[in-house]
């Protein structure tokens, strides 16, 4: 008797969708972190230390990592 081997994905579609949302949030955090530099290396630009780059962007990246970990650990019903 031959049993039929049915290939099955490791995660459900919901897990992959949540994972993509998490990766998108991480990408958004890195986009928020970019910029603030100066074209002239002798001129200091205070814009690099604003709220968006110091608080908001790293928090967004950490939330994105949390979402991706949740998508990996979420089990089937």
Layout of secondary structure:
Layout lengths: L12 H21 L17 H23 L4
Helix pairs in contact: 1-2
State the gist of this model.
The chain has 77 residues and is an all-alpha fold. 57% of the residues lie in helices and 0% in strands. It has helices spanning 13-33, 51-73.
Structure description:
The chain is mainly alpha-helical and 77 residues long. 57% of the residues lie in helices and 0% in strands. Helix 1 (13-33) runs antiparallel to helix 2. The longest helix has 23 residues, at 51-73. The protein is elongated. The mean pLDDT is 89.
Please report which band the strand proportion falls in: under 5%, 5-15%, 15-25%, 25-35%, 35-45% or over 45%: under 5%
Distance between the termini: 31 Å
Question: What's the overall average pLDDT, rounded?
Answer: 89
Quickly count the domains: 1
* Class by alpha and beta content: mainly alpha
Quick one: biggest sheet?
none
Radius of gyration: 20 Å
Count of DSSP strands:
0
User: What best-fitting shape do the alpha-carbon axes yield?
Assistant: elongated
The SSE string, one letter per element, is: HH
Instruction: State the helical fraction.
Output: 55-70%
- The stretches of 5 or more residues where confidence is low (pLDDT under 50) are none
Tally the helices. Answer: 2
